[in-house]
Design brief:
CATH topology: Rossmann fold
CATH class: Alpha Beta
Number of helices: 11
Radius of gyration: 19 Å
Helix content: 40-55%
CATH architecture: 3-Layer(aba) Sandwich
Number of strands: 4
Strand order of the largest sheet: 1-2
Strand content: 5-15%
Length: 225
């Protein structure tokens, strides 16, 4: 959503959850009032194009999406927040794209998933991120905590990494011309303010002290330390 507030970009949410083979034109037309633009004309045309093309695979559906996006928003860059590796590979086969990976502190992630920090959740986070290290070694990496707590500095570095000029107005995400139909729950919030989820600080757990390899990795991956 922050990148989508850049004057050269448009956030489109989790595209694979809109155009995936399990979705059809009727579903999108029934839900297009949920788009952050208000009442969307873009997504129904995407699905109409997919139907016209007879696109069945995810790659073919993405091709229809990219073609429609270019017609609706000439010169703009789509910011897709889909999270699956298969989706990235489908998109990368069609167009030059830069994967951006946001990693959350293992303790905060564990609390967001299960309500507390546990060894099982920490190890799951560690294995999952190591898998992404291997699959997306060329990704632009950014920590969730630096992004939420030191937004100007983190966004400036992110823009430099993706060859965009940093614009302080990017933080005003309520001003974004986004078309997010599926994705971040913040899209439906009237305030749209960046607030750090600090629930994990209220609890205590012995596991971060015991799982030192995980915490060492956490410091490097999230905080660059």
């Amino acid at each position: 959503m922050l990148l989508g507030s850049h004057s050269e970009c448009i956030a489109v949410g989790e595209v694979d959850n809109v155009i995936g083979p399990e979705r059809d034109r009727t579903w999108v037309e029934d839900h297009y009032g949920r788009c952050t633009c208000g009442k969307c004309n873009f997504w129904p045309i995407v699905m109409e194009t997919i139907d016209t093309d007879g696109a069945t695979t995810l790659a073919d559906r993405y091709a229809a999406f990219l073609r429609t996006f270019a017609e609706f928003f000439p010169g703009k860059i789509p910011v897709d927040s889909s999270k699956h590796l298969d989706t990235y590979h489908a998109l990368a086969s069609l167009s030059e794209c830069t994967p951006i990976r946001i990693t959350r502190d293992v303790r905060a992630w564990s609390v967001s998933v299960s309500g507390k920090v546990t060894a099982r959740k920490m190890l799951r986070w560690y294995k999952m991120n190591k898998r992404y290290d291997k699959a997306l070694s060329h990704a632009v990496n950014i920590g969730y905590e630096p992004l939420a707590l030191h937004t100007d500095e983190a966004l400036s570095k992110l823009c430099e990494a993706v060859d965009l000029e940093y614009q302080p107005a990017m933080k005003e995400i309520h001003m974004s011309d986004s078309h997010i139909l599926v994705g971040n729950r913040m899209r439906t919030s009237g305030a749209l303010k960046i607030r750090y989820d600090s629930r994990w600080l209220a609890g205590a757990s012995i596991w971060p002290a015991l799982l030192r390899p995980v915490m060492n990795y956490n410091r490097r991956r999230v905080y660059g330390l």
